TrEMBL record:
Belongs to the universal stress protein A family. Residues 1-134, 155-286 form the UspA domain. It comes from Streptomyces albidocamelliae. This is Universal stress protein. Pfam families: Usp.
Length: 288
């Protein structure tokens, strides 16, 4: 089954930027584009019945889609105007998509799409990659010379989903994958005789981390031999190291494990930090 690239649209400048980004990516990958808009019937509008309000919602989406079709006449586009909660509708759409693309409002620890309940829930619960795009995103940001940056951690399987997405995206764009692995000094009590031997065999902590990154990349280099790869290993927190190399990125890819709490799902601190502070679009990929 061919999965579409799906864009969630609500009429804001951020969602329209996400729609344009999704359309360009669909053209690159020769995939259809699906546009989803969720709306709720407002009983307070006594002069407008359900059909009328549905018509308003459909009209707003149609105007945005007309522009996409004019810019990309070869693109296959479908539109779904769904009555119901945005989070549920978008999570359901993501399950059927190659990726879900949403708008993000911008920077800062207080203001932002990601801290809203809808964005938080969708990112944490989506079974497929979710890409966040800011209102100021432009096609020129995807120019040659800008890398697809991806974070890698743990063993070879721990970041397989993020690495797969990064290599597929770079292959479609003719870009370089810049794989980033951050490391910190472990507490003394974390050492064991077995781990000490591994470190000794590798020649120390940093060579060990470099070898771990090389091992994780090996199967993807073999699968995508035409994609250039740059490896970046640096001591520091994962979020800070990723952001330090994201200035020349056209996309940053991070993996995520959703954490369940009493107040709902939460994404990890690395994904949360990158989503708030990266200037370019960010893809959050669930672990496989």
């Amino acid at each position: 089954m061919t999965r579409p690239i799906t864009a969630g649209v609500d009429g804001t400048a951020e969602s329209l930027a996400a729609l344009d980004w999704a359309a360009r990516e669909a053209v690159r990958r020769d995939l259809p584009l699906r546009v989803v808009h969720a709306w709720r019937y407002a009983e307070a509008l006594a002069t407008a019945d359900r059909d009328t309000q549905h018509g308003w919602a459909s009209e707003g989406v149609s105007a945005a889609v007309r522009g996409v079709r004019e810019r990309h006449p070869e693109l296959r586009v479908s539109v779904d105007v769904v009555e119901g909660g945005a989070a549920d509708a978008l999570a359901a759409a993501a399950a059927e998509a190659e990726m879900l693309v949403l708008g993000s409002r911008g920077h800062g620890p207080v203001v932002g799409f990601l801290l809203g309940s809808v964005g938080q829930q969708v990112i944490a619960e989506a079974a497929r990659p979710v890409v966040l795009v800011r209102a100021g995103d432009r096609p020129t940001a995807e120019a040659a010379g800008r890398d697809v940056v991806v974070g890698q951690h743990g063993g070879a399987e721990d970041s397989a989903g993020a690495l797969r997405f990064a290599f597929e995206t770079a292959a479609a764009r003719g870009a370089t994958v810049r794989a980033v692995r951050a490391w910190t000094l472990p507490p003394v009590f974390a050492y064991s005789p077995g781990s000490m031997k591994l470190l000794d065999d590798a020649g120390g902590l940093e060579p060990y981390e470099r070898q771990a990154l090389a091992d994780a990349l090996r199967p993807w280099r073999e699968r995508f031999p035409g994609v250039p790869v740059a490896e970046h290993v640096e001591m520091g927190s994962a979020g800070e190291v990723l952001l330090s190399v994201a200035g020349r990125a056209q996309l940053v890819v991070v993996g995520r494990r959703a954490h369940r709490t009493a107040v709902g799902a939460r994404i990890g601190s690395v994904a949360h930090g990158v989503l708030h502070h990266a200037d370019c679009p960010v893809a959050v990929v669930p672990h496989e």
